[in-house]
Protein 1
Amino acid sequence: MLCNNCHKNEATIHIQEVMDGKKKAIHLCASCAAEKSQDQGIGDFNIAQLLYNITEKLDLPGLTEALQGQNKGQPEQPPEAGAPQQAAEPAAETAQPHCSVCGWNSEKLRQTGRLGCPNCYRVFRAILDKAIPNMHRGKTHIGKSPAGNAQNAAPRQMSELMNLQKELEIAIQDERYEDAAKLRDRINHIRQNMEKE
Amino acid sequence: MDNNEDICKKILKFLGQNVSWLEASGPGDDIAICSRVRLARNVSGEPFPIAADQQQRDRIRNSIEDAIRTSSCMTGKVLQFQMDGLTELQRQIFFERRLISAELTGRPQGAALIVASDETHGVMINEEDHLRIQALCPGLQLEKAWQMADRLDNCFAEHLPYAYDSQLGYLTCCPTNVGTGMRASVMLHLPGLLLSGQLSSAMQGIRTLGLAVRGIYGEGTENHGGFFQISNQSTLGESEKMIIDRLHSVISQLIVHEKNSRAMLVEHNKYKLLNHVGRAYGKLRHSYLINFEEALNALSALRIGVDMHMFSSLSVALVNELLVKVSPAHLQLTSGGGLSDDELAVKRAELIRETLKNVEPNR
């Protein structure tokens, strides 16, 4: 069988791919496979660098400067989509995105390629909207979701338990031992309920 | 918490058991060694481990441990190890058994491993994500591994408020995992493609399809014995079933290619192949010093010999077991620890000679 790409050499790589539920067979010779792999830039890549390159291209007001270590200590200002048109404006009044929940900023995102908490997906949305299509086959999740999460009482109990534990830690730090004792009772009560269920 | 002596005993007992996903035979197990599905999950409203302080990580660990204790998510005999209570060597053991990632061996604060005693499924706590659910099956059984991981995930979802977004799916620390949070992988042994010089073009083809290929011992170990791990890269825009089906279909094709190249070698280069296996056998039976990479390459050749029916008294499962036992941390721990590289090489050669002492090639 001849290569589907150059139609000259014998195809030595035969791969079947399932896309949109349909099977598609690809037959390539070694040199076309190597060429295609390079063309498409697929292979191991550095996520942090990829995010950095994308944020550079995005040229959000102030963001590029922020990523270069300038413009530090500005207050939080979540980025807006469609910002590239405003990029020519002076960036003096703008700031780098900063997550108020976990303290993550675009510099940390650039260094690690990682986010700090679930809320970061909202804060760094403009960067991620550009980066995600380069990482994945689509932009929208079509897989499973947490089953019965809305109806089930147990995750809510766990959530309450974790909030109470946070409050307990703060109460102990502040030496409010009476409050801490009450919180501990409440935590034990929820734990007992969960074990009964 | 267990003291160090208890931990050592627990780990040595654990090492005494056979690894079920290496031992049991699965479909295509001469080429596909094992299939793994891993799901990344996080608790809503909490910082990911990378941004969390010790207190926050402890809280996450407690809540996941509570969920396991108060649910039927992980029934049967379960072993629990807190990573910061282990030495680096002990953590390395779990890495070599594919139970934790390389990352977890180096950053243990607040991290834990909870694993079924047969090692078929388990969870990592506070690795890159709060929770990583993992299921392992022998051979090419991605669908079965997915079903196991899915069942565990459904159970945890009843007890933990997951960070989930209707558009982006499960929110993960690294955006390369967002969506399904699923990484499905198969560990493969492809010496036929390696020996016939077709390996790099096959790997390029696999990468062209958006799948990741790496050596099983991490980046840069691609040529060690022809052992590879192939996994999906994209986790968003396809359902779990679509990802599994695509990976399964590509790997099935790759297995056909591997079988063909082995058959071609037998037909056209029989003596080259016999020589390759025979020399490896000689090295394994008669070495007094052997380093890990050398052992890996020789055991890889022995594994082809078993497949070619060259050794009737040797099974693929025994070679697989040796592959784990000669790994640096396993050997170091079972030898009592503190050995230099040369001393380890002596121990490794001893172990191999002893294990293979009654194995003779068919005449």
Protein 2
Amino acid sequence: MKTESRLEKVLKGGHFAVTAECGPSKGADVEALKKKAEFLRGRVDAVNVTDNQTAIVRMSSVAASAILKGIGLEPVLQMVTRDRNRIALQSDLFGAYALGINNVLCLTGDHQSFGNQKQAAGVFDLDSIQLIRTVRDMRDKGTIIGGEEIQVPPRMFIGAAANPFADPVNWRVVRLAKKIEAGADFIQTQCIYNMERFKNFMQQAYDMGLTEQAFVLAGITPLKNAGMARYMATKVAGIEVPEKLIDRIASLPKEKQADEGIKIAVETIEQVRQIKGVAGIHLMAIEWEHKVPEILDAAGLSQRPEV
Amino acid sequence: MIVAEIKAIDAIREMIDRYSTILVVGCDSCVAECASGGHRETMLLAAALKLSYAKDNRNPKITEACLDRQCVDDFIEGIAHLVPDHEAILSLGCGAGVQALARVYADKPVVPALNTLFIGETEMRGVWQENCLGCGNCKLGYFGAVCPVTRCSKKLMNGPCGGSIQGRCEVRPDIPCGWDMIIKRLEALGELDRLKEYVAPVDWSTSHAGGPRRVIREDQKP
């Protein structure tokens, strides 16, 4: 094992992994964070803690990850390069590891123009791939950017995101290869609604041998209702929701839409499990954490491996 | 060239209302090309100010002048005879022009009439595009002569982010995705292989991050 990460043990043990997402509070509400996290306890192998997602100011992902660690969950610290330069990022990596965090997901982050601080300066000193390389060099070479040696280097299990649905489409798998080459141990994909496009992406990744070099977790986000489906289709960067999926939910009365959204999520999980190279799922139930157990039970993923 | 836009009359007046004699000075270089601070715009702004003051029953002395360049001392001296008769200078130069005037005419307040925006090109009449951030370490040769630092909203160096859809940037659909442009251009040139290599973090010390830059060349000094 490269790290003390539970997620690494699960994946390297050949188990089908389940990760989920927990967005920190907009404020310093620790109880709200813990309450969300309790729905995930024992049900998932690790919990991603988002870093000011969609550029909305929230509790720092390092702090929230440490809180989750403190109550016995396995956090995946999300870090975006939008808000911090290389000094702050590397410093926070030291701090996160010192607080017992063993997984990090390296991202560039949504542009600040999406959030509630539209006038902010975007930092973008590093890009996500440079951050991946930075974390890997810390772990495997014991150095920071520039080559200086450090004492007690953070040993992180390194994650990266992949979006099979963005353009230019033929570039997507090249970018995945670049992330893996830079040091990504696992990949969490953007939410999958277009199964054909995802299958093509995975086939290319498989053919290039990429699924041998990194674990790919398929991104699943249950749609709560037709409104959310339309919002995801039109307002969220890099997400594609096919028209017929929106119609499938929209054709039902409001009170039945949530159940249909869960049914679609379960079907999606069953389909991705059949795809070569998919090592697990990343279930992003946005502000719907309490539905995670129900979805996993329905998908036959109730039990998490002991490692 | 430097691209700039003229400020709103109200914003300009807020800065100059306290003066009763104002020298309005245009610049016939970059800001003339982008139709914000040349001869014509200087004349129009002076006329607009006079009209605006007339509405308030005020009649400050407003004199117009235009320099070939506001950022070079030899040219700046061209208004030396007019400056003493005015309390303040309103410059239609870029930020460099405003500051150069203030350095030369050290005892005069100099206020900007323009918002200086970027280094760019005239893509067509009426359209100016930002395409250089002046980072001090040009890598255009590796990216098909499309600058990732300038044309990508996130300054990404290793390929497009997940928000690139149909050649459009996630920030606004009217922004072309810089990475889409880079990939298409290198594809057409048969040089897509350039993009497979990892690009290390940018050295920003050659950019403004290293503090205000200054070029000194002994061979050029008088």
